[in-house]
Design goal:
- By secondary structure, the protein is mainly beta.
- 41% of the residues are buried.
- The strands form twelve sheets. Strands 1, 4, 7, 11, 12 and 13 form a six-stranded mixed beta sheet that branches. Strands 38, 39, 40, 41, 42 and 43 form a six-stranded mixed beta sheet that branches.
- 10% of the residues lie in helices and 40% in strands.
- The N and C termini lie far apart (82 Å).
- It has eight helices and 44 strands.
- It has four domains: 5-124, Immunoglobulin-like; 136-285, Mannose-Binding Protein A, Chain A, CATH 3.10.100; 298-390, Immunoglobulin-like (Sandwich); 435-590, no CATH class.
Length: 591
């Protein structure tokens, strides 16, 4: 007579991932251990997965086994049997075409009378499957990708229909507005859409996607550049053969945004945000949406803000969660220093797997650094995090101390003289005494004679001239061949201008500047000037017109309004005023 024994395996069936080992002992020396899982079960498709089983003190033979809590459509294979030979065997689970997406983590296996601890099985989606929102799965990542506000996700789902076919990217009045921080990679579309609507709440393309409620879901968004490309790859599942579709990724210059042709897959940047294109919403979700109960987690980020001893104040920490429902939770924070309490009446609100913890200090709080704080939310306790209460207010002046990437900057506290070091950032004082206004971790080529790779642009701390013309008398209609607009071309532009027009006022004022003892200053190109505009608060500029070194044609050159942010492709080279305002120049250098 064959007996039965319960056994535990820890399984996660996702693209051939194996997780751990688990054993159970019946107290009489018999043990059963389940090894790593092999294989994938996919929604709507028949298939099997297997797990190695090793035993001790169990006789060779075929045992009838049971697995409790299997999700719908999943059964034990091999007619419900596991054969043990030489202390090893194989457990098979099989899914039929009726199996739906699920993660079930409380399965138990019984073999020869021993009951295992809980283990998990996951049935995953494939590209082309119908997703939870009624759309089609267009992208699958077994390892997952990060989505701001959602955490780790594994799928992208596209709506079954377009949300518009003649929509502009920006609403009237926002065609030339720069949306800061939009990304292009997979996982950034949701944050892009939120950033667009935070500035331009009626932006037609983004709003049409955010307002979509397919499948009762409210988390749809306009795809990023790379997410849109995954939609193109899966176009046959979406019934799309042509059309031009908007992405949520703005180009580096404020006038343009990325789009994609669905007849040939090419991606490009449209020069105006008022072009009428197609829009299709997508959403991201994880393996665990609407299924199973994997481990809940709570993670607390780093301190935002400063508390000073004897001064009442608040500061915050980002909180990210996994598998904790949206809602407001009473929380506790262990090991708080004297005089510090939890703000917001002791509550943290979680929405989309993220929230904010607020800590408050009264005037009785003393200087302290405590690194063993823990947050407990919904019964889950975080890893340790730190709080720092300063003895005085720290205010640093940052100065670049190196010129190779990544350059370092030393910060000197104006209150106590303390010095600390970090990577160079925009706003730091540069090697030549100017202000860093552009950082490119990938590097860019500074063109012209002696070309080199640079990572930083530094602007002079003062203007090199006001009310200056671009060309000197006699050269106002002279072509300067080959001037560029891109970042890295300003130095070569300036040399080209002065090679023909040696007294060109704007270029000469910059080339003659010797700030910090450096002789490599130049008039910025069009896009270098635009980066100056973005960083204008660090440069002490709130208005004014500035020349670039980028020629438009024989008679015109481009310049920028630092009040409105508008770049003008051309203006007369002999001009030194625009709309009653003097045109200035500010030199920059690259390193």
């Amino acid at each position: 007579m064959k007996n039965t024994k319960k056994i535990l395996g820890i399984i996660a069936i996702v693209a051939i991932i194996g997780i751990g080992f688990a054993a159970c002992n019946d107290g009489g020396g018999k043990t059963v251990t389940v090894g790593t899982q092999k294989g994938t079960l996919t929604v709507g498709k028949a298939g099997t997965v297997t797990y190695s089983v090793t035993t001790a003190n169990i006789a060779n033979g075929t045992y009838a086994v049971t697995v409790a809590n299997l999700p719908s459509g999943v059964t034990v294979g091999n007619s419900g049997n596991v054969t043990i030979s030489g202390n090893s065997g194989t457990l098979t689970l099989a899914a039929g075409t009726s199996a739906t997406a699920a993660t079930t983590s409380n399965l138990t296996l019984t073999l020869d009378g021993v009951t295992s601890e809980a283990f998990a099985v996951t049935v995953v989606f494939a590209i082309g499957d119908t997703g939870p929102g009624g759309g089609k799965i267009i992208y699958v990542s077994a390892s997952g990708f990060n989505v701001t506000g959602l955490g780790t996700c594994h799928y992208l789902e596209a709506a079954p229909d377009d949300q518009g076919y003649s929509l502009v990217w920006a609403s009237s009045g926002y065609f030339e507005t720069y949306i800061t921080g939009t990304g292009t990679v997979i996982g950034t579309g949701k944050a892009n859409t939120a950033a667009i609507l935070a500035v331009d709440k009626y932006a037609p393309a983004a709003k049409a996607c955010a307002d979509y409620r397919g499948g009762g879901k409210d988390d749809w968004f306009l795809p990023s550049k790379d997410e849109l490309n995954e939609m193109y790859k899966a176009r046959s599942h979406l019934g799309i053969s042509s059309g031009i579709f908007w992405s949520s990724s703005q180009y580096s210059f404020y006038l343009g945004a990325w789009y994609q042709y669905f007849n040939n897959g090419s991606q490009d940047v449209v020069g105006s945000k008022y072009a009428n294109l197609y829009v299709r919403a997508i959403r991201a979700f994880s393996l665990y949406d609407d299924s199973g109960t994997p481990t809940k987690t709570v993670t607390v980020g780093t301190q935002n803000g400063t508390l000073t001893a004897g001064t009442a104040g608040t500061f915050t920490y980002p909180v990210t969660t996994t598998l904790i429902a949206n809602g407001t939770y009473d929380v506790t924070v262990a090991n708080l220093p004297s005089g510090v309490t939890v703000g917001n009446s002791g509550n943290v609100t979680i929405s989309g797997n993220s929230g904010t913890l607020t800590l408050m200090a009264g005037t009785s709080a003393t200087a302290a650094t405590t690194s063993n704080l823990t947050l407990t939310l919904d019964g889950v306790t975080s890893a340790a995090f730190a709080i720092a209460i300063d003895a005085h207010v720290h205010s640093y002046v940052w100065t670049v101390t190196g010129t190779t990437y990544p350059a370092q900057s030393t910060g000197t506290c104006t209150g106590c003289g303390e010095t600390i070091t970090r990577n160079t950032e925009i706003g730091d004082v540069g090697p030549a005494g100017g202000i860093i206004f552009y950082v490119n971790a990938s590097g860019f080529t500074v063109t012209g004679t002696g070309s080199f790779t640079a990572y930083y642009l530094e602007a002079a701390s003062i203007n090199q001239g006001t009310s200056l013309a671009w060309a000197s008398s006699g050269y106002t209609e002279t072509n300067i061949a080959g001037t560029g607009e891109a970042i890295g071309t300003g130095k070569a532009n300036t040399a080209a201008i002065l090679a023909i027009d040696a007294n060109a006022p704007a270029a000469k004022a910059c080339a003659d500047y010797r700030g910090g003892g450096k002789s490599d200053w130049f008039l910025p190109s069009r896009y270098e000037l635009y980066e100056m505009y973005i960083a204008r608060s660090h440069l002490g500029i709130s208005s004014e017109y500035f020349w670039s070194s980028s020629q438009y044609d024989d008679s015109y050159a481009s310049h920028q309004n630092f009040g409105s942010g508008i770049q003008y492709y051309y203006y007369y080279k002999y001009g030194n005023y625009r709309n009653g305002t003097a045109i200035s120049v500010r030199a920059i250098r690259a390193f």
